Every structure is written in structure tokens, then in C-alpha cells.
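Question: what's this shape?

___
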Amino acid sequence: MMRIDKLEISIEARANNDHNDIRHFGRILDFSSGLNLVVGDNTSGKTTLVECLFYALGMEELIEGKPCNRSLDKAVKDQFLYTDPDGNQHEWLVREAFVRIQLSNSNGETITVKRKIVSDDNQQNKMYVWNSPIMENMEHRDCREYYIHNRDDHNTEHNEGFYALLAESSDLPIIPVPARNTDKTILYMQTVFTASYIEQKRGWSDFFANIRSYNIINPKQKLVEYLMGYETNTDLVNSIGLKEKRKKLENLWDTKVNAVKNYLAYNDLYIDGLQTEIKQQKIKLDELRIAVRSESVEIGTYIEKLGQRIQALERKQKSSQEGNGNEQYLAVLKRYEQHTEEYKNYCIELVTEADKLDNIREQINYIESEMKRYDSLRKVNNIITTLDVKICPTCHQHLPSDISSQSALTLSQIQDSRNMLSMQRSFLEPMMKRLEAALKNKELNKLYLDKQLKREEVEVKMMASQNNINLYPLSTNEQFELVDCKTKVATLDEVELHTKEQIEQLARIKDTYQQVCEKIKELGDIEEDDLPTAQMLSAFRKLLRKFNYTSNNVINEVFFKEENTTYKYLPVIKHGENNEEEIRADSSASDFIRSIWAYYLTLLTESKRHPGFLVMDEPCQHSMKEASLTHLFEECASITDKQTILFCSSQPKTEEKEEGEKEQSPNLIEELSNIVKGKGLNLNYIEIDPKAITLLEQKND
């Protein structure tokens, strides 16, 4: 855990209208434990100070995701306007600039970190560290150099990585976490420090909106687990994991059982003794029987009954059609049946070939359409397009989002794409012509086979008539019954096989469930109230009430997400058993901001591991009741073992006053801070007037 003691911004600039006029600008801020209020007008440049603070810590990627000084305002790296005491405004060009920050940890150790913003050597990735407080003249020979944004900058085995030093100084261990496309990565300090910063623009749109994931699986979840120290308690971690697995198995069982029952019901079947809740399943799964609802018999008995009826009807039909053993007739009949089957297969093959030809034609039409698009693009002077290219023109697969989102195409890229399409067309066109020719011949052959089959049918009928053979011994009702029985048997066989497979899956789920329950029992039942998240939830709810959150019932409806998802451990609203929404979706705009205050402050106070400070940039920019702001300041000021730094507008927007209420004071933040101070709470009030970057009397090295 660390505390920010001092921030110093130093800028050497020359006047744009006088190259010989070189002066020293900047700002020095002193911070304390408890609440620090940095107050100024909306245009004073408070955010510039925040950016410099996190830049000095090597955390500038939390601002806009950009490394080095690209995340900083132009006022500290390019140029700025300065109005002198006489009211004259001039433009100043930045020649050199750096930032220094003094940090203290819980062990009483103090370090000073210096990082260049603008310099001749462009060494923005170097950090210069002194084991002492900030002093006016700090010799370079007394510091040690570290690097950031390079390989091994978190490696604790080396002594050159700044993030490793920062982690050690803050008592924040660097731990491995699961990652995408690799077994493990580490929880980077840039991810950990997300808990210490609510950025002005995106930071108020979601919890950890500016988090740097670095390919970590569920980075928000892993961050909260890290802060709460979950991975340090093996039994606790295992118990939580097992309970999550148990819950998933219960849900999976419920889903599969309902699917089985609905499937059987659709086919006029049911299965007796299969319970919807896995813990209520007492009958062995291999003892369950499927029955026909309308017949009240087991499926096996019913299939056997249908089979007997099919055999009886087929015997009747066969004995008549065989013509009392007339061998000549039987030979003709057998040949006709064989040719009929061959004709059916030939027709199926013909349809398949036609579908294949249609598919190739569609591909060629699509390719020609794309080629026309690329021909049009080549005629444009500035080759920039907003064409929505989401599908590969050759393989028709969806392109990755990072590729399809790129809208700038060079002339060579367009020509390469067109050439690829042309090659594809050249490959497909001969194939299409061969298929067309083959299909034409097969259509002619089909006509011949059709005529031949009709001649054989006439021959069969003539011989049957000559030998007094009844070709249709079954009545119309019997014929329908035979078809119906065969259809039912085929369907029931399929249903029975599918259901048995599902029952086998349920059996495996049941076995796994029992194993998980045994392991939970072996670990011992950990009370929910003993879990870090339970303690965290209690503190979170308390702060919601303190900050006047009213959108939902705090006690009965506000919870943390339990399922292992990207939103796990973040606030949700539960209305009943199965209705759950993220808190931002079920809260007013101002109440959602209150929930962000409460959540970040809860992490600050309840975490076992935390950087030790929290910076909020413009927490008062949303319409809030004055009472809510007062409670926020009081809560921050009461946290004396940690540090909060709030950058606030001197005239924040508050909710509209009702008739008769006192109008907002032009110095509201100052008045509210005096109320907090009057209660004996620790508050450090820093006023930025008129601009964050101002003229300094002397230059510090």
C-alpha cells in the first residue's frame, strides 16, 4: 500500500513571440492521508494534473490506452496559453518538461520518481528513482534508472523493471492468471491500478471502464479476486470453485431433464421417476423406463406390438404378390423393384448435382459483383472507403472484427484482392461448364430410364393379370395402417436411442455432482458470511444507503454477480429468483454514479491488497443532491489510513431545487468541505486558480 505525498510538474517554455524569453512553469501539489480535494473551474486544467499523476506512476495507459506522453494534454508537451498578472495572454512553446512524484509506503519508506515528458533524448520509458523525498536539487548520480513498457518490466528477478519496484514498494505481489491463447500470464500493475482511478470521460460509464486486460480471461473478475486476496486461501478458493461447479451441474441437469421430458411429450411418451432437481433424484437412472402415454405400456412392448402387426400385413401382401410360385412373374417383379430403387437413387444423385451447380453459379455471381466493387474503388483518387467488408470474397468466412473494421485500403491492396477474385473465377468457371454438360446428359438419361421403368411396370401388370395375381391385396385402410406402423416404429426407435443417450449423459452429470458434493463436504462448510465478498457486499450496501441510493431496495435487491462471467463480483439487481440485471441498467443516472462511488470506496477499505489510494476525476459532474456530495466527502475524509484524491469543479451541477429551497452557492464545494472540516475530519483543500499550469519562481532539476 502506498500514499502519494507530492506531485510536481516542471515545464521549461519559451514565448512564441520572443525566442529569448524562456521561463519556468508548472504546478506543485501536496497531498495528505484522508480526503484531498483539488478544486478549480471547469477550464482550469485539473484533468491535466490527473494525467500527469498517473503518467508519473507509469499508468498513463489507464487514461486513453496510449503509452508514453501521447495520453497527456498538449499543455505539458507542446504549447499552452498563459495570462500574466497584467492580463496579457501569450502562447508558450514547451522545450523541456518532466514530472516528479513522491510516494510513501506502509513501512515508512519514501521514494521520489521522476519521468520526462519532453526532452532531447526522448527517454519517456525511463523512470528515475531516488530513495528520498523530493528536494530542490536532486543529483542524477544519486538515482537509479528503471524502465517501463518493455519486456520484463514486471520481472521481480531483475532489478531494472519499474513495475516490479512499484509492486514491491506497495506490497502488491505479482501473480499468474489464466490468459487467452496461452496457459498463463500475470496480473499487470496497470490492471491492478484500475481500482485506484476513475477517469473523467469513460470512467463513469461502467465499473473498471478503463481496465487494461492484456489478454487476461475475465480481467475484472481476476482484479477483484486479487484485491480481496482470494488466491491466498487455497481452501476458500477451492470451496468457491466447487460450489460454482455444483451450481452449474444443477443448472445443467435441470436444462437436460426438461429437454428430455419435452422431447418425449412431443412424441406421446413419458418417463416416470426422473426428477427436475438433481438432489431429489433417488431412483437409479438405468432403472427408469419410457412409456407410451396413450397406450399405458412401456415403449419396448409397444414397438414389439407394432412389429407383429407389420409382419402380419407384409405376409398378406407378399403371399398374394408372389403369385403362387410363378417363377417367371417373380423374376419380372424382382427386376422391376430393383430398377425402381436404382431410379430413385439416380434422381437423388441428379438433385445433388443440380444443387452443386447452383452453388458454383452463386459463387461466380458473388465474385463478379465484388470485382465490380473493386473496379469502382480503383477509380477513386483517395483510396479510403467505408465499405462494410465483413465476409471474405473467396472463402465466404466471416472476417475477424479487427480486420473488417479497417476501412483504409491502398491501391495495391485493392488490385491484389481483385486478382485473387479473378483467379477464383478462373478456377470455378471450367468446373461450372463441366457440371452443366454432365447434368444435361444425365437429364437425357433420366428420360430414358423413366420410359424403361414404365415399360417394365406395364409388363408386371400384364403378367399379374394373366396369372390372376392381385397386385394390391391390402385394403386402403390396411395400406395406410402399414405405412403408419412402420413410421411409428422408426420414430420410436430413434426417440428411444436418443433418450438413452441423454440418460447416459445425465448419469455422468449425477456422478460428477456427487463427487463435487463429497469434496465440498471434505473441505468443511464455509459460511457465506465469512466470504470476503459477503463482507464486501455489506460495506457496499452501507455506502449506497449513505449516498442516498433509492432506485432499488438496497438490502433485498442489491447483490454481487455470483456466476463465473465477465461481470462476476460486480453489482447486480435481483427481482425475484430468475430476474437479474446489471445495476447500471436498473438505476437512475445519478444512482448509478452513487453505486460507482460506493463500489470503489468499498474496494479501497475492504481489500486485503490495494494500491492504497483512489483518484476520482470530476465525481461531481453529474447532477447530485448536495447531501449526497457531503456524504461522499465525509466518507472519504473518514478513511484516514488510506488516501482519496478528488478533482472537482468549484461549481458542480446539482439536482434542481424544489420551490422554497436555498439556491446553490457559487462556492458549493468549498462550503461542503468546511462542513466536513467542522466535524473534525481530515480534509486537504487545494484550490487551482486560475490555471493548473502556472508560472513558477524557480526551476527544480
